[in-house]
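Dataset card, provenance and construction

Sequences and ligand SMILES were collected as paired inputs. For each pair, a complete structure of the chain with the small molecule in place was predicted and serialized as structure tokens. The example below shows a pair involving adenosine-5'-triphosphate. Curators did not alter the output after generation; any descriptive sentences attached to a record were derived from the structure itself.
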Amino acid sequence: MRLIVENLACRRSGRRIFAGLSFAVGPGEGLMVTGRNGAGKSSLLTMLSGRLKPDAGAIRVEGTGEATLPECLHVVGHRDGLKSALTAAENLEFARNLLGHPAASPVQALEALGLPHVARLPVGYLSAGQRRRVALARLLVCRRPVWLLDEPTAALDLASQGVLAGLMRHHRAEGGIVIAATHQALGLEDARELRIGPVAAPAEDAFAAEEWL
Ligand SMILES: Nc1ncnc2c1ncn2[C@@H]1O[C@H](COP(=O)(O)OP(=O)(O)OP(=O)(O)O)[C@@H](O)[C@H]1O
């Protein structure tokens, strides 16, 4: 599949955050979305996930058949979307049933994130980093080609950051797409960078935002 963004603009609370954003990502590619605090990285990911309407421009996909872009996405955002009263395994089972295209079992996914011992614990008992790893384990229980990750290393120790880098590498090697908003390298160093912000980008850089208020 291919994800294409053309001349995208974002307005929040009446203020133009960015405009003129264009890029395309295809199978196996990674895109690191960078920029200062408030530049609009999370807003861009929210737009890609279909939860925020663009102020202008278009987001489209090719090669997905009948499936819409939201149906092709996994999103791991600032809010982990986990139910505190459910166990880690129950949360993952719920996501697996809801999202379709099941892949790894909840236990396998937790093992991949180094957390097999929390499978039967309510998520409310977990540390911040453990919760984040359960949220990331959701990526593995269903097969979806595009991973949208917003600061995915938040609360992760170095070892878990390495695990995440491996998961992203593997996903891309299988033809998946990773788009991550981040202030860190993430292990996506070979990915293209989309810098949102007032820093002037080279003229040939199709990713540059053109207008700032
Ligand atoms: N729900 C919202 N309603 C109104 N304005 C919002 C909302 N969320 C974010 N904004 C505004 O949109 C702008 C961009 O915010 P966004 O969270 O996209 O930036 P970011 O680049 O992800 O920042 P950070 O690096 O701090 O996470 C900010 O000025 C913010 O105040």
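Derived descriptions for this record:
The two ends are 34 Å apart (CA to CA).
The first strand starts at residue 2 and ends at 12.
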